């Protein structure tokens, strides 16, 4: 099989295309023939050594993907050969990821792809959708399902980003009123396609005042991508006993705040790193995301506000560069 690998941390030029034997699934594993692989910021950061150093002689990048079950390991009763699946956290805990024609994964990381869902959508779930799920369930609601957020107002920063888009779609499906912030009319159009009810361009006027006009009693929960930049705004617009769920550090690595003024709000700050959350939360995210896909609530392409950027396997370095440069939408690697 063809696979992309790297043997040292560094720039995308460390990636190379090579031939490897098709792996065999071990006990509790399935072998998946990949049709699409998703590329996330975590992929290039791992490769570059920003999220840990290389611990194996050779690594295939890629956490997310979608394809078809080709073989089943001993003890697996949850899958059948020929079953379409979407993959999550593939490279976590092993040296081989989804930038390859085949990959073996623990069966629990290969989730049935609902009928009529495309492989493009399946490969775009994983990190973005599951991170969005954890952000949304960091407050008073433990599961994302129809009407579970009824009566709540959610503020999603960066609504045109992958996690922000998924958070909008999931929250709207769950019955929330969703406000999102964007930086341009083009990104506003993407957030609208995702289903956001109110869109605030933070580069045009006072974003806090605009959000307060929409939600005078405050927003119940915030999905935050840039806490160092937005914390003053967040504390201004959030309702008492609200939750600020932080999943990235865009705009700065240091967060400071006035403690007394923050005490009075009784806020919860929930920091999120997908690879460290509890297994029960991972299972809940996989189940709820799949339910949302089945319901048609998670979408990619123009109808979902997620532009798709396709690369061939031999162009994986360019795909990594595109994500590192901030490509808007979803970068995918085509494997057939």
Could you explain how this protein is built, in words?
Helix 3 packs across helix 4 and helix 3 (126-136) crosses helix 9 (279-294). The chain is of the alpha/beta class. The protein starts with a strand and ends with a strand. Strands 3, 4, 5, 6, 7, 14 and 15 form a seven-stranded mixed sheet that branches. It has helices at 41-48, 119-124, 126-136, 162-173, 185-194, 207-214, 227-237, 259-263, 279-294, 316-324; strands at 2-5, 16-19, 29-39, 64-72, 84-87, 102-106, 110-112, 153-157, 177-182, 198-201, 219-224, 238-246, 268-271, 308-312, 330-334. It has two domains: 2-125 and 300-334, Medium-chain alcohol dehydrogenases, catalytic domain (Quinone Oxidoreductase, Chain A, domain 1); 129-275, Medium-chain alcohol dehydrogenases, catalytic domain (Quinone Oxidoreductase, Chain A, domain 1, Alpha-Beta Complex), CATH 3.90.180. It is an enzyme of class 1 (oxidoreductase). Residues 10-333 form the Enoyl reductase (ER) domain.
State Rg.
20 Å
- Please state the overall shape, judged from the principal axes of the Cα atoms: globular
Q: What is the count of β-strands? A: 15
Using the 3D structure, state the CATH architecture of the largest domain: Alpha-Beta Complex
Summarize the main sheet: 7 strands, mixed
CATH homologous superfamily title of the largest domain:
Medium-chain alcohol dehydrogenases, catalytic domain
**Unreliable stretches:** none
Q: What's the rounded overall pLDDT mean?
A: 96
- The overall number of domains is 2
CATH class of the largest domain: Alpha Beta
Helix content, binned percent? 25-40%
